[in-house]
Amino acid sequence: MFVAKRALAVSTKAAFPKAISVPKVSASVIQRAGISSGKINKKPLAQTATEAATAAPQGQSISAIVEDHINLRAATQSNLSPTLNKFCLDGKVAVVTGGARGLGRHIAEALCDVRVSALVIFDVLKEHGDEAVAELSQKFDVPIVFKQVDVRDHISVQNAVTETVGQFGKIDVLVNSAGIADSNIPAEGYNIDMFRRLIDINLTGTFVVAQAVGNAMIQQKTKGSMIFIASMSGHIVNYPQQQSCYNASKAGVIMLGKSLAAEWAAHKIRVNTISPGYMDTALNRVPALDAQKVMWNERTPMGRLGNVDELNNLAVFLASDASTYMTGSDLLCDGGYTCW
Ligand SMILES: NC(=O)c1ccc[n+]([C@@H]2O[C@H](COP(=O)([O-])OP(=O)(O)OC[C@H]3O[C@@H](n4cnc5c(N)ncnc54)[C@H](O)[C@@H]3O)[C@@H](O)[C@H]2O)c1
């Protein structure tokens, strides 16, 4: 397990006020943090605090500087309009499965960008997970943790959820992005073990994680939001590649999302799915798909694959209080592919 936890960031979050009036921030700190022109310095809080401490005027204690930075964050938040404020995830703890790379990795970054309080990545790929934590921790002042988890393994998923709640007190947001694809396998020759494996990861795995996190959310009696990354393949049959199992798995994910949304509305847990079209990720960067990609582009009204970060804002919207009346919805994000 790889943990990057900034002591300063943790204490900042703990002290971060919920209801905010514009707090006092000293001019020197505003200057050091680089927001004199309304722009915020991209450096992590811990780093700016350290620099501020080094450059601190004589007699100013480190605790005063830290306090200034806490106020700085609060001031920044209070400057947002009520509508923009709803997109922020201050105080929320998020888990992203499949967050070590691809769409999940980018969504994880977007959640940090809208100020989630802690982020936990569940993925089988340890090396990629560690890299993601290191990169994100450079950019953001939130605790970010990687847990090596196979979503098929309900015991290790439960352990990871229990650990997360132990570390951060709760889970508010779950993004299920872990998934695999098998393409170009004619149904008549589909190996049954491969078929079962894909269903086990894409559909059963989504349920395994949702059940463990759902139970934590029910126990903690707070609101929660779950987002499952399904696919347009849950709506249409892709052309020309034969991928019956993948398509069926994603149709299952969409209906699982609606079913859980109906069951868990009573517990104030919202469940929505996102159905992407063809996205330019490692999943599709295989030579065997090169010729087919030409066809995919032709069949997409926008004429291109989606960029790897083009689900980010949709995920933020569904995770946040900007979508409090949405549950059981499936949002297509496919460059128009399913229009034709
Ligand atoms: N790329 C696309 O065109 C596209 C389109 C529609 C839907 N999707 C879906 O989006 C999701 C993310 O896809 P991506 O393109 O980012 O793929 P990706 O392969 O880049 O990322 C998937 C991540 O899931 C992880 N994962 C796979 N099996 C796992 C398991 N058993 N346990 C835990 N983690 C596991 C992988 O290690 C990886 O980090 C998938 O569910 C995929 O089906 C992708």
Please supply descriptive tags for the structure shown above.
340 residues, 12 helices, single chain, disordered N terminus, 8-stranded mixed sheet
End-to-end C-alpha gap:
46 Å
Could you name the CATH class of the largest domain?
A: Alpha Beta
Could you name the CATH topology of the largest domain? Rossmann fold
In the CATH hierarchy, the architecture of the largest domain is 3-Layer(aba) Sandwich
List segments where confidence is low: pLDDT < 50 over at least 5 consecutive residues.
1-59
In total, the number of domains comes to 2
Residue-averaged pLDDT: 84
- Radius of gyration, rounded? 21 Å
So what's the overall shape? Answer: globular
How many β strands by DSSP? 8
Small molecules held by this entry: nicotinamide-adenine-dinucleotide
The proportion of residues in beta strands is 5-15%
Neighbour order of strands in the largest sheet: 1-4-3-2-5-6-7-8
Topology order in helix (H) and strand (E) letters:
EHHHHHEHEHEHEHEHEHHE
Sheet of most strands: 8 strands, mixed
Describe the structure.
GO terms for molecular function: mannitol 2-dehydrogenase (NADP+) activity. Belongs to the short-chain dehydrogenases/reductases (SDR) family. With 340 residues, the protein is an alpha/beta fold. It has helices at 7-15, 27-33, 45-54, 62-78, 82-85, 102-113, 126-139, 154-168, 192-220, 244-264, 290-299, 312-319, and strands at residues 2-4, 93-97, 118-123, 144-148, 173-176, 224-229, 269-276, 330-333. Strands 1-4-3-2-5-6-7-8 form an eight-stranded mixed sheet, sandwiched between helices. The N and C termini lie far apart (46 Å). The relative contact order is 0.11. Mean pLDDT is 84; it is low at 1-59.
